[in-house]
Amino acid sequence: MRSLASILFASLAVVLSGCGSSSTTTTTPVTAIEWTWKNGSSTVGANSGQPGVYGTVGVPAASNVPGGRSTSVTWTDKSGNLWLFGGQGFDSTGAGGLLNDLWEFSPANKEWTWTGGSSALGTVSCSATDGSFGQSSVYGTLGVPATTNVPGGRSLSVSWTDSSGNLWLFGGYGCSGFNASYLNDLWEFSPTANTWTWVSGSSTSIAFGGVPGVYGTLGTPSITNTPGGRVASISWIDSSGNLWLFGGVGFNSDGTQGLFNDLWKFSPTAKIWTWVGGSGTENSVGVYGTLGSPAAGNVPPALSNATAWTDSSGNLWFFGGDGYDSTGAVGDLNNVWKYSPTANTWTWVSGSGTNDAQGVYGAVGVAATSNVPGSRLSSVSWTDSSGNFWFFGGVGYDSTGTLGYLNDLWKFNPSAKTWTWVSGSDAVSTADGGQPGIYGTLGSTAATNTPGGRDGALGWTDSSGNFWLFGGFGFDSTDTPGDLNDLWSFQP
């Protein structure tokens, strides 16, 4: 079973061609950082993904483990526990489809707990365009938490964690009714009360389509405003607790589908959306301006599947994605952009103004202004205590310009504006377009360990500053592709 992202982007002609082509490039082994395989399987299994072992709802157990999956959403709570919801993957029976299971992982106890949602996809609840199934949403009453409420199975959503430790979920491709569609529902989950609340957006299913957006007036909040149904957006939470949303593949106000560069802000207190910037129409070309210079006229291009983070000054950042470059061509990007909510300006910080750029790796562990990762999408990222941005893998271009599933680890210093290649390979060397994982011994750290190339993986940072990586669609220890359920950690 392939990641749902490829199915969705095919309809927009944003197709990753060449991932199955062979390459004879010699792999550069790099062991600058030590990974630890903590949990899950080192193989994808006979069905291209391991089934989940759910145990009893609410009861942690060493044998529990989510099934193989990709394009899920994650949170870290105030106690440092790691949370996981849904995605495209495998249930307890080994059936593949759109999941709505909620899991909690304790780094201290190294155990998973299935805390809610369904352990089985069902057969009639909700059908997707690829023929798979998922559980439908139970919305309840708008604004009212209930133990019976639960979002439906979905993939390619976005998530936030607020200052109170509540978990937020928006949109994705999934199940509100009988047929899957592009969703714009906003949910809040309280880990303390173990309840979901439907906060905003539509509960109506549009069969294999998407909910149109209501933009209102630029810069003016309104209770009628709402982003259109969309997938593969990027998101942040600012120091005031506001939720921010940018771009993705979705639907504009007249129901037209495309890639977007619209920027939205949601106030959890007022429960109101504001369209802040970007275009209300689809497939916009970016205005890059001058590298490193903020300007009121700058705006990133319409794109999806970028990787986002927030700095200590409250600025919003993102890297890469798939969309329109400065010339209007569609492809994979390696731009870094920064948005200042205070000044309401975008800055093109790093990377190429054109798509499909190959990586410039330099020497492992050495920061340089000439270094830059290749264009890519669907990486997984973290932020360390010094404000540096880290990301791993994704589908993109290596040092030779070959497209495939990458397993390189990079660090970006926002102050110096320099990239450092930290770990992993600078080349896609296998015949099937990805690097196999080197797992070593479960629970044992080793310089030779490294996760395999993958996209749509999940990431957390725990309360001790450790980085965690889970699953995604990629390559296991035998170089077999599929939906993974391996859990890794490393200390930056």
Offer a concise description of the structure.
This protein is mainly beta and 492 residues long. It has one helix spanning 4-10, and strands at 36-39, 69-70, 73-76, 82-90, 96-106, 111-116, 133-134, 154-155, 158-161, 167-175, 180-190, 195-200, 230-231, 234-237, 243-251, 257-267, 272-277, 303-304, 307-310, 316-319, 322-324, 330-332, 336-340, 345-350, 376-377, 380-383, 389-397, 403-413, 418-423, 454-455, 458-461, 467-475, 481-490.
Description:
This protein has one helix at residues 4-10; strands at 36-39, 69-70, 73-76, 82-90, 96-106, 111-116, 133-134, 154-155, 158-161, 167-175, 180-190, 195-200, 230-231, 234-237, 243-251, 257-267, 272-277, 303-304, 307-310, 316-319, 322-324, 330-332, 336-340, 345-350, 376-377, 380-383, 389-397, 403-413, 418-423, 454-455, 458-461, 467-475, 481-490. The chain has 492 residues and is mostly beta strands. Strand 26 (380-383) and strand 27 form a beta hairpin. It is globular and about 55 Å long.
Which secondary structure elements does this structure contain, and how are they paired or packed?
Layout: H1 4-10, E1 36-39, E2 69-70, E3 73-76, E4 82-90, E5 96-106, E6 111-116, E7 133-134, E8 154-155, E9 158-161, E10 167-175, E11 180-190, E12 195-200, E13 230-231, E14 234-237, E15 243-251, E16 257-267, E17 272-277, E18 303-304, E19 307-310, E20 316-319, E21 322-324, E22 330-332, E23 336-340, E24 345-350, E25 376-377, E26 380-383, E27 389-397, E28 403-413, E29 418-423, E30 454-455, E31 458-461, E32 467-475, E33 481-490
